[in-house]
Amino acid sequence: MSRRILLAYDGSESAQKAFEFALQLLRREGGELAMVAVIRSSEFAVDVCAQNLIEGACAMLGSEMQRLQRRVQFAGANSSIMIRLGQPAQQILQAAREWHADLIVTGQRARFSLMRYLGGSVSSQIRARSPCDLHVVR
């Protein structure tokens, strides 16, 4: 059965591991991959400097994701890239619904990060509301 895998990607080491896991799934089971990167927007992102930072982040992530996309193509699968602005968990869940993902793959950051205590990690927020299966790569 061919799967529609949505990879949450932020360029981190854990995201790299999540990509490798998703690539192995594609090689084994077939399917297609959509990679989504979310750049946190800010209420203060209205000035020129903030806009330049956002554009730079989009370009950098886009370039990295294109490199990963070539690896997916070499493995014989199709892939697409999405770069969004907003809250990561919310945007990843929205992308999963819009793309009709069967599986969301994401990495997990450090176990004791401050974000866990301030509102939960992105992966735990996704787990609570995911419209499909979720695999968190540790």
Tell me what the structure shows.
The protein has 138 residues and is of the alpha/beta class. It has one domain (3-137): Rossmann fold (3-Layer(aba) Sandwich), CATH 3.40.50.620. It contains five helices and five strands. It has helices at 13-29, 48-74, 88-99, 114-118, 122-129, and strands at 3-8, 31-39, 78-85, 103-107, 133-137. Strand 1, helix 1 and strand 2 (31-39) form a beta-alpha-beta unit.
Q: How is the secondary structure organized here?
A:
Elements lengths: L2 E6 L4 H17 L1 E9 L8 H27 L3 E8 L2 H12 L3 E5 L6 H5 L3 H8 L3 E5 L1
Parallel strand pairs: 1-2, 1-4, 2-3, 4-5
Helix pairs in contact: 3-5
Descriptive key words:
138 residues; Rossmann fold; five-stranded parallel β-sheet; 24% strand
CATH topology: Rossmann fold
Task: Work out the radius of gyration.
Answer: 15 Å
- Could you state the CATH homologous superfamily? HUPs
> How many strands in all?
5
Structural class: alpha/beta
Strand/helix succession? EHEHEHEHHE
CATH first level: Alpha Beta
Architecture (CATH level 2) name: 3-Layer(aba) Sandwich
How are the strands of the largest sheet arranged?
A: 3-2-1-4-5
Overall spatial form: globular
Number of helices: 5
Largest sheet: 5 strands, parallel
The tally of structural domains comes to 1
The end-to-end span amounts to 25 Å
Mean pLDDT: 87
Low-confidence parts = 113-118
Q: What share of residues is helical?
A: 40-55%
Strand content: 15-25%
